[in-house]
Amino acid sequence: MLCHMNGIMFYPLLEEAGDFINSSVRGKKLIICIGLFSVEYLGRSSSNLGLGERVLMVKEDGSVLVHRRVGYEPVNWQPAGCIIRCGVRDGKLLLLSERRRPKEFLKVVFDKVYLITSTSLVDEARFEIGPVENEFYDLLMAHPEYIEEGLRIVSRQKSMPSGIPDFTGKDSKGNYVIIEVKRSMAGVDSVKQLDRYMKSQRGHFRGILCAPSITKSALLILKKKGYDFRRLNLKALSSLVAFKPYEETLDRHLEEGGS
Amino acid sequence: MLCHMNGIMFYPLLEEAGDFINSSVRGKKLIICIGLFSVEYLGRSSSNLGLGERVLMVKEDGSVLVHRRVGYEPVNWQPAGCIIRCGVRDGKLLLLSERRRPKEFLKVVFDKVYLITSTSLVDEARFEIGPVENEFYDLLMAHPEYIEEGLRIVSRQKSMPSGIPDFTGKDSKGNYVIIEVKRSMAGVDSVKQLDRYMKSQRGHFRGILCAPSITKSALLILKKKGYDFRRLNLKALSSLVAFKPYEETLDRHLEEGGS
DNA sequence: GCCTAGGTCCCGTAT
DNA sequence: ATACGGGGCCTAGGC
User: What is the pLDDT of residue A253?
Assistant: First the structure.
């Protein structure tokens, strides 16, 4: 019907909506449903929500969200991994979501379905936290204290794997240092990379691996080789990013009165 | 168009979608939009999400949710109280959500809008939640038989970790007992807590850990230390309050194994 | 306004 | 499997 859409129905009969949901669940689609329904929850706690108009979202991984008119948080939910069952009973459309451990149940009872749609979303993008690539190294270049207090950057390698370390520098005691930076958790491979750089150098160098976190095994090898781990505070680093571009975009819109 | 619906559009031009969003925001409607877009966030932290098909929800209180194919949690969001601005810029539809305190920005950049709908949800129902914290202990205080038949409560500790057990009491045989209560599955930490209370007492006391369930390892340690586990029947306990979440419908449905 | 505690927290990693 | 810590946690209540 629509590109990437499985379909959409307006004011379906409850039987139709039930079939639609069941086939969408089987087809691993994301379901969005606006309707008049009540909700019961039973598990670690229990809750009851009377009849009202809300939005129900069911994802392909079995997660369920019930959203009311307002509020960031869903009023009722079920995390991923639940089993969804759906069907008409006593003139109402029932959707039951069961979680195995801990044992929890979410029951949605529809009086009316206004709109229901299911889609297969294509979304391969990686979610990156912290400043983006370029910005990231620029920030560290400008603020080496986020790697280590008293550090001065001497050289920087822009492009990727080339046998040249991300940074070289001089620490507060005058030692030359080779720095390997990771934007996410460092593993054994990160240590190996640093180690390659270190071995390709002559003279005395300190080796620093700088990342938001590090696996136990990687830290073990790192220590054994006599290198240092420096924890990188992504959140603090993010705070260095200027708000300006955002504010400008917003301002421009305001001046021009929206679209 | 639809009952309670402000409208719906399929494959609108970005300009049309922008106008639609702006009028919906002004009209305090809930907006759901399925499209191809990227997301940037900047504030307490920062994040970047490349192009992909997702669901955007904007509520009348200014809360914003971006949901991907899977996962209970929104990949990006903005809590209630944000200012929404929207318009076309450089051939893309931009939606900016600004939070004042803390200063945070969420930027959604649409390449395509597949479906957009806005609705005024009528929902006056009260959300009732089952026994929570205080209420829970109130119930047990009033009905110690749900911990153990013949038990009488002697003392109760309201506030949290203080070296004082949840309850002390006297059992049907006249033994003094120390009772640690958990609302959800008890773990090793629960046993440790009970153990601390027991060791800080002089004289002969029975130790009782009372919870809906207990982990294998915790039960092992508990037994080894000579304490008792008492299964707490949440269902029965809940039936004591005005709101009865464990009513027939859900149970019946479960017994019958769904539709 | 700031701070604290609770949550059906959820979600990851380590054990 | 369970235990533990972090989160842009969010939210409500206290001061």
Answer: 57
CB contact under 8 A, B45 and A256: no
Give B213-249 pLDDT, tens digit per residue.
787 778 888 888 899 998 887 767 776 765 555 555 5
Does the C-beta of B79 come within 7 A of strand D? yes
Model pTM score: 0.83
Structural domain boundaries of chain A?
A: 5-119, 133-238
Task: Count Cβ–Cβ pairs < 8 Å, chain A vs chain B.
Answer: 253
With helix as H, strand as E and coil as C, how does chain A read?
CCCCEEEEEECCCHHHHHHHHHHHHHCCCEEEEEEEEEEEEECCCEEEEEEEEEEEEECCCCCEEEECCCCCCCCEEECCCCEEEEEEECCEEEEEEEECCCCEEEEEEEEEEEEEEEECCCCCCCEEECCCHHHHHHHHHHCHHHCCCCCEEEEECCCCCCCCCCEEEECCCCCEEEEEECCCCECHHHHHHHHHHHHCCCCCCEEEEEECCECHHHHHHHHHCCCEEEECCHHHHHCCCCCHHHHHHHHHHHHHCCC
Q: Read off the pLDDT of each residue in B128-133 and give the average, rounded to a whole number.
A: 73
Cβ within 8 Å, pair A238-B5? no
Residue B160 has pLDDT above 50, yes or no: no
Interchain contact, B121 vs A65, CB within 8 Å: no
Q: Tell me: domain B5-119, CATH 1.20.1070.10, correct?
A: no
Q: Which residues of A touch B70 (CB under 8 A)?
A: 59-61, 63, 80
Strand C-contacting residues in A 201-220, CB cut-off 7 angstroms: 215-216
Which nucleotide lies at the shortest CA–C1' distance from B134?
A: C6
A133-238 under CATH 3.10.129.10, yes or no: no
CATH of B134-253, one of 3.30.470.30, 3.40.1350.10, 1.10.357.10, 2.30.30.100: 3.40.1350.10
